Amino acid sequence: MTAETLARSGPLQQLTDRLAELPRTVQVVPESFVAMIDLRLDPAGAAGSDVVSYLGVDLPTTPSTWVETDAVRVIWLGPDEWLVTSLSRTPQDLEAGLRDAVHGRGAVVDVSGQRTALRLAGEHARDVLSAGCAIDLHPRFFRRGAAVQTLLGLASVVLLALDDTGTSYHILVRSSFAEYLARWLLDAAIEHSDS
Amino acid sequence: MQLITCPYCGPREEVEFHYGGQAHVAYPADPSALSDEEWAHYLFFRDNPRGPFAERWVHALGCRRWFNAVRDTATYRFHHIYRLDEPKPETT
I need a labelling partner for A56 at 20 to 30 A (CA). Which of A67, A73, A141, B90 fits? Predict the structure, then answer.
């Protein structure tokens, strides 16, 4: 008898082929297995400064913003709440490191399974988003460093602007809504197809 | 669609918000001393004015923070929006 290993799979695996067929002007790429840690603490307190020295970047205190280092990205979720994401570090490692830094003066929870990450890029990325999002996405207001929590279609998402030209976004969506959102994006992208 | 200004996130569509009833309903100092009638009044009886009304709201699909707002129940216009740690503004 051989031991069966369970392969890790994301909620968008079955849609990979259809997403790959999207036109160049609207590219949707699922980003699998991003480590995400929910961090809650008083940014003015001692825990705040310990976390800042651990992460190597200030916790953003301006609403609806994000900052990043080589290893992590820190997204503002509330006046005392942040989402720390990382592609290079494991959730276990990141959670343990943050928990050491916080040292009981706040909360550190691994929420990697809660959301799925998508990259939306291309010339028409902004047009696709505006079809289902009430936020003013013009780069004049929504540029690199902005991260809003809002509705896209009927799914609640965290939307990050990655550049200043409205052609590159990062979408964090609840895993159970990920398939709905991917199908919604496929549908919204039809009008921008090349042919 | 009406925009509601979240004290943290700024103006957002009203579908992102949930209503939380009357604001500034103080928890009784000594709940066990209350009669059933007084307890029922604390739990269920709320003001229902026509005009400015201090209410609790939550930005449910955004930052998920609670805040208070003075809204005119007749016109649905928001007169004041303030955080929970800020005092209730004077209403006329």
Answer: A141
